[in-house]
Design goal:
The structure is a single chain. Helix content is about 65%, strand content about 0%. The relative contact order is 0.13. The N and C termini lie far apart (about 45 Å). By secondary structure, it is an all-alpha fold. The protein has a single domain, classed as Orthogonal Bundle (Hypothetical protein af1432). It contains nine helices and no strands.
């Protein structure tokens, strides 16, 4: 800017300032969109609990643990954010059901019913304005793991763990039993690498914290 003023006089100041102002406006709009999306995701994550479809804290536990497992598997940046948001909203399809799932535990349902709820959830997410990548993870969480993106594999395994272990993990025995059931399901339902990463995270006591970047 100093060189511009020296060459063109004071007219250089407004000319050089315009790109900076446009950048600032764009950044503020981007921050506002992220805030709105975060509030939408937080509200949807609580909706299933308020409606009595899922146990209190289930979405937050799944999101925190999924994020920890994602880091263990090398996810970062946008991929990790998509995983966190999808985990928070993974049960949103239950709001479309006429008859609620007992205890909100979708992992105990037949595969066809899990798939139906996942597809309903993906459709709900698409109508909220949340990024498409999040909706894809939500709707594909019940697919056979060989057909799933990594984030969907993680959400499926962690959701099943929380469903099976109880609220909020009903003791060491329940946690071990839940992990064993996941290991027995690695032929089709749960990716072996995800299950073992989950076991390592749990052994370190990881995933206990709140999720990042989403209003409480």
């Amino acid at each position: 800017m100093a060189l511009g003023v020296a060459a063109a006089g004071l007219w250089a100041l407004p000319v050089l300032a315009v790109p900076l102002l446009l950048t600032q406006v764009s950044f503020r709009r981007y921050a506002a969109v992220r805030t709105v999306n975060g509030q939408t995701i937080a509200s949807l994550a609580r909706a299933t609990e308020i409606a009595g479809c899922t146990p209190p804290g289930h979405a937050r536990r799944v999101a925190a643990l999924s994020t920890a497992v994602g880091r263990e598997l090398g996810l970062s940046g946008t991929e990790l954010t998509v995983l966190e948001h999808a985990a928070l909203m993974h049960d949103i399809g239950q709001l479309s059901l006429v008859d609620p799932v007992a205890g909100g535990a979708t992992a105990l349902l037949p595969a066809e019913e899990q798939r139906r709820i996942a597809l309903l959830g993906g459709e709900v997410v698409r109508r909220t304005g949340v990024p498409e990548a999040v909706a894809v993870v939500v709707e594909r969480q019940a697919d056979p793991y060989r057909e799933q993106p990594r984030a969907a594999r993680i959400v499926r395994a962690v959701n099943a763990y929380d469903d099976l272990a109880g609220e909020p993990a009903g003791g060491a025995g329940a946690a071990l039993d839940a992990l064993e059931r996941l290991r027995l399901g690695t032929a089709r339902d749960y990716h072996p690498d995800v299950v073992e990463s989950l076991a390592r995270v749990l052994a370190r006591g990881g995933g206990a914290g709140m999720t990042s970047g989403i209003p409480g």
